[in-house]
Write a structure and sequence with these properties.
The chain has 1434 residues and is mainly alpha-helical. The chain is built from 62 helices and six strands. Helix 17 runs parallel beside helix 23, helix 42 runs antiparallel to helix 43 and helix 50 runs parallel beside helix 52.
Length: 1434
């Protein structure tokens, strides 16, 4: 078997493979057929038939003409069909015609080469007495073992030996030959040109060897390019010999030394190595002896006498080689896979090379290396261990690299997928599909390094599958469909999305859009949602398909028009059922991507028609339902996957649903599959149940838009029959019962949405009857009235009571939980709509709720099983266990997936034992009851007292939320629903239950955490939390229970720094002194105004809020799509408490950018900033842990906006007071320790740029305000970036005159500025320059004066070893300090000791210099300083 080329092989290896292929005479895979040229006829000759030019002796050259024909025109010559019969005119001049058709002379006269026959030997035939030449058998000839790398067959070796024997027989005897010198054997060294005349004294050479050699060892003449090249080389050699013979030995040695000095040492070593390579000479000699006739013919006639000596050498060498070969045979005989026997014909000579491939493979063993080995996979996609020893008959060893290891690498499978053999392409795609499926399941996470999916996608796997889809071979097409389904679709994702369909708001889902698109977000900041979407689509259209697929695989596939190819496969190819199901799964995944993807699928010609016609027919062959029937084609048979695809497609929007129901006749299909019981449908039982379930879900989606409600009247008997059969599910078990429960849950979900739609019929009818022309658009009422759905409640309440009795039976309850959850949700929706009906008596409604509370809900809450459910909240929570919803190891950013690390165990939010769906539905029902009947609120006070619920809430808000990914967003959304209903119930109890205060702080913390976590689509919940919970005084009991007094007492105990900032000369000096407690009390009283401020600043969320309200309030006629907005992060940023201040800063900055000058701000803007600061102060004092997620540096950056907004905003009295209070909070030691200005801050491109803006603002409008000065000084601490200090002392030295914050009122310890000593030489020089020039004075800027003196003193007296530049700088600075004229500055720089904030200077001085410093000063200044030097004045 011929080996296949492997990566890394050179062209020589490819030529060797070609020679092996030609020698094997195998038939090629491709046959080239050369058709006859019609213009030349069948008899036209080709260039290949022309005899090639032969090398010859004499060459006649044409001077001035090139060897090749020049190009007369830039374009290739055209072939004329009438070339042989050209048309000529009578008046045409023959000479002109000849000139126009003249060809280059080299096309006629070219090289004329004479064949060289001088070296051809003329032999006469040997006369024999036989009439015919004698035949011979190769067994009569004794062959010799061949040496060298060249290989010959046995026959070629026999023939060579025969010719050698004939030459030896006809050669003349030694007596007839002329005697040659004794050096002739050396002269005839077959090594050839190994070296020029060797240097004297070299080892192994005779003294006169270089004088007697007949051939040059270096010059061969091959490069001369003429026929007499060898003669020229010989002439040069003879000239060299004559010159050497004329020189003495001393002259030769001198010339040798000169050459050795001039030549490259590597060249000299090469020349010496040529002569000393004895082993190589023997090989060359053996090769020459194998061709004795050529060797003898190349010798001059006078040298034939050396034959005897050469024969002696040959015989000795042959004996030595024969011994080595015999030894090799003895060694390798034991390793032969086949032992040769004597009775075998023509097997007396063993050819080891040909038997090598028959050996057994060596046993695989794992390499002892730190580097990983190449992963190899079986045909089922399983990872094969490196040391696995598998038999070869499994077909896992057909590869070139690592032949002993079983399995195929990804590179080999990619190579095989491009094979010309159909079976190989199919097999490769199937194996790749299995590998992808196992990789997505996480089987390789612990075994392989890196991501298999990421590696495949980077290698172009997606477009390999896309190209394979276009293959004409059905098997290749089917394999590519299977691999594409494995890449895109996760069956577990579909399973859990179906599982949560009947949960509260479970019908709505996030689109499968990757959230890491590499787009230029900065350009889109000022665009709204619609403009952003249009701009993004326009950019995607201009990008190549691979660039789009790199961040969004589905979008990339849609650009390749994959939907048209899939339609062709379903409509024309009509593949086997497995391929059809894979295609439907792929289409379902594409439909989940976005509304745009649904539109493209709907617009694909004949795609939906084909699916509805072929896989959702009205009738089909009933044999399909027979047991054991082999279904060979799914066409013409109803399929649940097709119904699910239509349902997911309908979730893309109300317009898509209307097109499906009307244009594609899905209403008739719904009636067909809903009216008939699954037992009566001619399909297998499970498939029929799934089909019926998907039909009900499709109808539920349509009813969610208020559509297809006209079918309700037609199918009402069917629905009532199903409701009557619900109690029968209590006694069943098995997978069929689980499917039946899912079907029943889908029916109840349908009835829930029909009830919601009917609840607004009266309202819409009233609007239509009023015919108010001011309304923008009148919506027609749905064709279902409240009276038609009012009779459903008794059926479902009865069934709910029976199912709740099974609460203590764990297995039965887990089976019935989906149905129980939907029944509870139905009751919540029913009573909310029931209370809004004008035809319903309110008293009857309240009595009905009291009956439900006393008969159903209160007994339910008292059961022990409910108590255990609350205890399961924390183990199953995704917030309390963030790793449970982290993306799977093989998750790739360009394919949205819901897979999580560890899967979905039973104790997870969507696990089988999760209490979240039922408890969320129960809280939803309780909230609707207490909203309608507020007198029943106290009846449910026990809900908030469950220990499991309190533990869960306490843990959930303190744990940081998991990162927002597709795998976590859909889980967290359901958990946030439960938290919201708990908070809504707490809000109702806050004003009615006297003992609620004990839970208020916990619930307020949960509400504040929930605000910064709610995801897009839940804007209604965020609005409700802001409106009723976040700013509710009932949730801030500290305001009533001595919180302000406690803050004042804390400031007294900790010697708070707030009083330090109010000093003479500041804006606050003329205001009465206000403590932090008074500020908190004022803020607490202003909570209603603060709430209005924040609600007005979130008005930009109004459009999305309207869509979210329509969904949560059940206004089906306003819902546009079941797909939620794309998830890019939470609705509100984590720093939303600073949002009004940031928004105001952006408005002022944009106005100033457009040229407007804002000298003063309106009163409402001043109030906005004041309320913002009040709210932040409340949170920092009473809810400090809530703001811990915001870095301290980010908080300071937000507060800096107070000074950057306008010119005098910070001088307003209330703003100044609250900013001072907040600064005192942020200057506490623990907070200062957490301050990090070097880390990237959220929402801020560069803190350095912000600080430069602050410096410029301080120069312009600060008025020397100490509060502003503290904000300027805070970032200049030693542990922060030196560039901030360089900006002050290098570019903005003017602020040093106005930065007059007194030392006694500065809230930050000076040690944070002076320790450790400064090591930046440029900054030290700036310190010294500002001090010497007087730009920095103690009276102007005492804080930075202390900092500069401390660092300069530490630097000039530092005696540590350092660079020469630094040492020279500090000595120069010390000398200049000694020579200063300003005696005070000189004393401060020389006698500085330690920082002391209580001292008027801010530091202490030495009375006299320490001896070490004094000695160093004497050395540097070269002056004597007496020990009794006068002490400085303190």
């Amino acid at each position: 078997m011929l080996s296949r080329p492997k990566p890394g092989e050179s062209e020589a290896d490819l030529l060797r493979f070609q020679n092996q292929f030609l020698a094997a005479r195998a038939s090629p895979a491709v046959k080239i057929v050369k058709k006859a040229d019609k213009r030349k006829g069948k008899e036209g000759s080709t260039d290949a038939e022309r005899p090639p030019l032969q090398d010859s002796k004499d060459v006649v050259m044409l001077d001035g003409f090139p060897d090749t024909l020049p190009a007369l025109t830039p374009a290739p010559p055209k072939k004329s069909r009438i070339k042989s019969a050209s048309v000529h005119f009578e008046d045409e001049d023959p000479e002109e015609r000849l000139e126009s058709h003249d060809r280059h002379i080299t096309a006629v006269f070219s090289k004329i080469i004479e064949r060289d026959t001088s070296a051809v030997a003329v032999t006469m035939p040997v006369p024999t007495g036989d009439p015919f030449p004698r035949t011979f058998h190769r067994s009569e000839i004794k062959s010799e073992v061949q040496l060298g790398p060249g290989r010959k067959s046995i026959f070629a070796q026999k023939m060579a030996a025969k010719r050698a024997a004939e030459k030896a027989a006809t050669a003349p005897s030694a007596a007839e030959c002329v005697e040659v010198p004794s050096a002739a054997p050396d002269a005839l060294d077959p090594v050839g040109s190994v070296g020029e005349a060797p240097l004297p004294g070299s080892s192994g050479d005779k003294d006169d060897d270089f004088l007697t050699s007949q051939r040059s060892r270096l010059i061969t003449g091959e490069g001369l390019g003429s026929q007499k090249s060898e003669q020229e080389a010989q002439a040069i050699h003879r000239e060299n010999l004559e010159k050497l013979q004329s020189m003495s030995e001393e002259e030769i040695l001198q010339e040798q030394a000169r050459l050795l000095a001039q030549l490259d040492p590597s060249l000299v070593a090469f020349l010496k190595s040529q002569r000393g390579n004895n082993e190589g000479q023997k090989k060359e000699l053996k090769m020459e002896l194998n061709r004795p006739e050529e060797f003898v013919e190349s010798l001059p006639v006078a040298q034939h006498g050396v034959r005897s000596s050469l024969s002696m050498q040959e015989s000795g060498l042959e004996e030595h080689v024969r011994k080595e070969e015999n030894m090799k045979v003895e060694i390798m005989d034991d390793d032969l896979p086949v032992k040769p026997r004597k009775e075998w014909i023509h097997m007396d000579n063993v050819e080891f090379e040909k038997l090598e491939w028959m050996k057994d493979l060596p046993s695989p063993r794992q390499k002892k290396t730190k580097k990983g080995m190449q992963a190899r996979f079986s045909l089922k996609g399983e990872l094969i261990p490196a040391d696995a020893d598998l038999p070869t008959h499994l077909g896992l060893h057909h590869h070139g690299e690592e032949a002993e290891r079983a399995g195929y690498s990804l590179q080999e499978l990619f190579h095989l997928s491009r094979s010309q053999v159909t079976q190989q392409r199919t097999l490769a795609l199937q194996v790749l599909g299995h590998i992808v499926q196992r990789a997505r399941a996480g089987e390789f996470a612990s075994s392989l390094k890196g991501s298999v999916l990421r590696l495949l996608l980077d290698a172009g796997f997606l477009f390999l599958l896309r190209f394979s889809l276009d293959d004409a071979v059905e098997n290749v097409m089917a394999a590519s469909v299977g691999a594409l389904r494995a890449l895109l679709v996760s069956l577990d994702d579909e399973k859990y999305l179906d599982w949560t369909f009947s949960w509260y708001q479970g019908m709505a889902a996030f689109p499968f859009v990757p959230n890491n698109e590499e787009e230029e977000e900065e350009e889109d900041e000022e665009l709204n949602g619609t403009e952003k979407s249009q701009n993004k689509n326009l950019r995607d259209e201009n990008k190549p398909d691979p660039d789009v697929a790199r961040y969004d695989v589905v979008k990339g596939l849609l650009k390749t028009r994959i939907q048209h190819r899939l339609r062709y496969i379903l409509e024309v190819v009509r593949p086997v059922p497995t391929v059809v199901l894979d295609v439907l799964h792929i289409l379902t995944h594409i439909a989940r991507h976005s509304t745009e993807a649904c539109s493209q699928l709907l617009d694909c010609p004949r795609l939906i028609e084909t699916i509805v016609r072929e896989f959702l027919p009205i009738q089909w062959d009933p044999k399909v339902a027979e047991p054991g029937f082999l279904l060979t084609s799914l066409h013409g048979v109803a399929c649940a996957s097709a119904m699910k695809f239509i349902r997911v497609l309908a979730s893309g929007g109300r317009n898509a649903t209307a097109r499906l129901l009307n244009k594609f006749e899905m209403k008739s299909r719904l009636s067909r599959f809903i009216a008939e019981e699954p037992l009566d449908v001619p399909l297998p039982r499970e498939e029929a149940t799934r089909l019926s379930t998907e039909a009900f879900r499709l109808w539920a989606v349509a009813a969610g838009y208020g559509q297809a409600c006209d079918l309700y009247s037609d199918l009402y008997p069917v629905l009532v029959k199903i409701l009557q059969s619900l109690p029968e599910l209590l006694s069943g078990k098995g997978p069929v019962v689980e499917l039946s429960v899912q079907r029943a849950a889908a029916v109840v979900t349908l009835l829930t949405h029909v009830t919601q739609t009917a609840g607004y019929t009266a309202e819409l009818q009233a609007k239509l009857s009023s015919n108010n022309s001011e309304d923008s658009e009148l919506i027609p009422p749905p064709p279902v009235a409240w009276s038609q759905v009012s009779g459903l409640q008794p059926f479902l309440e009865t069934s709910l009571k029976k199912m709740l009795q099974q609460l203590s039976q764990t297995e039965t309850w887990q089976t019935l939980q989906p149905l129980t959850t939907t029944c509870v949700i139905f009751l919540g929706v029913y009573y909310r709509a029931y209370s809004q009906q004008p035809s319903v008596n309110p008293v009857d409604c309240l009595e009905e709720l009291e009956r439900l509370t006393s008969e159903v809900l209160q007994p339910l809450l008292s059961q022990p099983a409910i108590d255990s459910m609350w205890d399961l909240l924390r183990p199953c929570s995704a917030l309390c266990n963030p790793l449970s919803c982290s993306p799977a190891p093989e998750s790739v950013s360009c394919i949205a997936s819901l897979s999580c690390t560890g899967g979905k165990p039973p104790l997870s939010l969507v696990g089988s034992k999760s209490p979240f769906p039922f408890l969320t539905a129960l809280l939803f029902l309780i909230n609707n009851i207490t909203h309608i009947h507020k007198g029943l609120t106290s009846k449910y006070s026990s809900v908030l007292s469950f220990r499991g619920l309190k533990d869960y809430l306490h843990q959930s808000w303190q744990t940081g939320p998991p990162s927002v990914t597709p795998s976590s967003a859909w889980i967290l959304r359901h958990e946030y629903h439960l938290q919201y209903f708990v908070l809504a119930l707490a809000q109702r109890m806050a004003g009615t239950c006297p003992d609620y205060t004990q839970h208020a702080s916990l619930h307020h913390c949960v509400a504040m955490a929930l605000l910064s976590r709610l995801l897009p689509g839940s804007e209604h919940l965020a609005h409700e939390v802001l409106l009723d919970l976040a700013f509710n005084p009932e949730f801030l009991p500290e305001g009533k229970a001595g919180g302000p007094e406690a803050a004042d007492f804390s400031d007294i105990l900790h010697l708070g720094t707030s009083a330090k900032l109010a000093q003479p000369g500041s804006a606050a000096a003329f205001l009465p002194k206000i403590t932090r407690g008074a500020l908190l009390r004022e803020s607490y009283q202003n909570l209603p105004s603060i709430r209005s401020c924040y609600l007005s600043n979130f008005v930009h969320l109004q459009p999305t809020l309207m869509r979210s309200q329509a969904s949560y309030q059940g206004q089906n006629y306003l819902i546009q799509s079941m797909l939620l907005p794309e998830v890019r992060g939470p609705i509100l940023p984590s720093d939303w408490p600073f949002f009004p201040l940031i928004s105001l800063y952006n408005k002022v900055t944009n106005a100033e950018t457009r040229g407007a000058i804002l000298n003063s701000l309106p009163l409402d803007l001043i109030n906005t900033v004041t309320w913002n600061l009040q709210w932040v102060l409340l949170l920092e004092t009473w809810r400090s842990k809530i703001l811990q997620s915001i870095p301290t540096a980010a908080k300071l950056a937000r507060l800096m906006c107070v000074f950057l907004t306008g010119s005098d905003l910070f001088l307003e009295a209330p703003i100044h007071r609250y900013t001072t209070a907040l600064l005192s909070v942020y200057c506490q030691p623990k907070v200062l320790d957490s301050l990090n200005l070097d880390a990237p801050l959220p929402g801020l491109a560069s803190f350095h740029d912000l600080y430069i803006s602050l410096l410029e603002q301080f120069e312009g409008v600060s008025f020397g305000d100490p509060l502003f000065g503290v904000f300027v000084l805070l970032p200049l601490q030693k542990r922060f970036s030196v560039h901030l200090r360089l900006s002050v002392f290098g570019e903005h030295t003017n602020i040093l005159r106005a930065l007059g914050v007194p030392l006694q009122q500065f809230p930050v310890p000076l040690e944070r500025y002076t320790s450790p000593p400064e090591d930046n030489l440029n900054l030290l020089r700036l310190y010294f320059r500002t001090l010497v020039t007087g730009a920095l004075r103690h009276t102007w800027c005492p804080v930075l004066y202390v900092v500069a003196v401390a660092h300069v003193n530490s630097f000039i007296f530092s005696q540590e070893s350092t660079t020469q530049e630094t040492d020279a700088a500090r000595k120069s600075m010390l000398r200049k300090t000694w020579l200063l004229v300003d005696e005070n500055l000189k004393k401060h720089l020389l006698y500085y000791r330690l920082v002391n904030s209580e001292s008027p200077l801010g530091f202490d001085l030495y009375e006299q210099l320490p001896p070490m410093r004094l000695r160093y000063l004497q050395i540097v200044t070269q002056k004597e300083i007496t020990e009794n030097a006068p002490a400085p004045d303190s």
